[in-house]
Amino acid sequence: MKIQGVKGMNDILPADIPRWHEMEAVAREVFALYGYREVRTPVVEHAQVFARAVGEATDIVKKEMYAFEDKGEELLALRPEGTAGVVRAFIEHGAYVEGPQKWFYLGPMFRREKPQKGRYRQFHQIGCEAFGIAEPFIDAEQIALVDDYLARLGVRAALQLNTVGDPACRPAYLAELKVYLVEHKGELCPDCNDRIERNPLRALDCKVESCQPVLIGAPRLLDRLCGGCKAHFEQVKGALDALGVAYHVQPRLVRGLDYYVRTAYEFTSDALGAQSSVLGGGRYDGLVETLGGPPTPGIGFALGQERLAMILEKRGLEAKPRVPEVFFVTADAEGAIEALRRGAELRRAGIACDLDPRGGKMKAQFKQAERVGARYALVLGGNEVRSGQAKLKDVKTREETPVELSKLVERLKGG
Ligand code: HAM
User: Which helix (H) or strand (E) holds 411?
Assistant: First the structure.
């Protein structure tokens, strides 16, 4: 039997890794500028954590979660997203006593979705969560952080902004929306029909062409906001204006997770095709309480690294992988031992180098030096070992310069 990877779960090969390192390094740098500190939580949590946080009725929990009984004892799940576990950790470690906290995380997430371009069963997120601040300025600051982050990577994405109300104004709106959708049942696709009872807000997000006329005519939550939500939204927009961050108000933007209140946002890119959302997030003021903590407001986002990697690939500015400074070409057994020794010395001094321990024809070894992109080739054999002298050959220009082996590190450090 030919063994293959699991459907929808991808290998990230060495050639792709520089892009991943770049997104992660820039995230660490930019997030730190805004006071976010890294947290690492397990990939597995009690399934309840996600059911309660993300919502029993959501597709993520109902259809897509990898849940399993651990030896018949407890129901566990691979995390489908990062926020629930981070909130669980925030509560479990009593972090709320220290006042507002800004945390970030990165790592693999799992959803049993139908795999397609930009949608996988294992994917990776980089996310930020800010706890303890109810004021709209933190919403704007976090969005500005995303804007800075994408700009540093040379990525252009459009900010879609909305508010999804709160428990004061949403229930009445949902009742009104439900009545409207029921009236138009016949014109809506089966998925929308399914959502009328389960999650009517999600129907607004349907992409099926034939549903659009009904959805465009649907009542808008933006027009039904309570005073608190309205003021919050206005202040978020005002702060974004002050920060010079452009946004599109998108009244039909809804998110696939139940914990959101007020601010909801996504950054989308045309470079991605159907799965255009590079990242998504919003405010979740009741979530810490839902999971058993004290009332604590919160706002966060997560970006999909596979999707960002696709944009970076198109952008074309590749971070260069590290190439060896020296490739040792060995002429005989004595040379091979010397190359091992000198190689260890160079690496201890922070100089990347390589050799082919199989030795073999020198011409083939030179070819290999070229293939791995080494700057110099250095031939080592009995003669070089005895005389302590060798030649550094520039792989591109083929120019040779003599070098004393005992001064190799000095010579390479000097350029
Ligand atoms: P989400 O919108 O479900 O939000 O996911 C955030 C991002 O993860 C998406 O915009 C997308 O880039 C990526 N993503 C989601 N599912 C997949 C998939 N199957 N394959 C590839 N990429 C995917 C959340 O997960 C929330 N926890 C975000 C958040 C943090 N809200 C508050 N704090």
Answer: helix 408-413
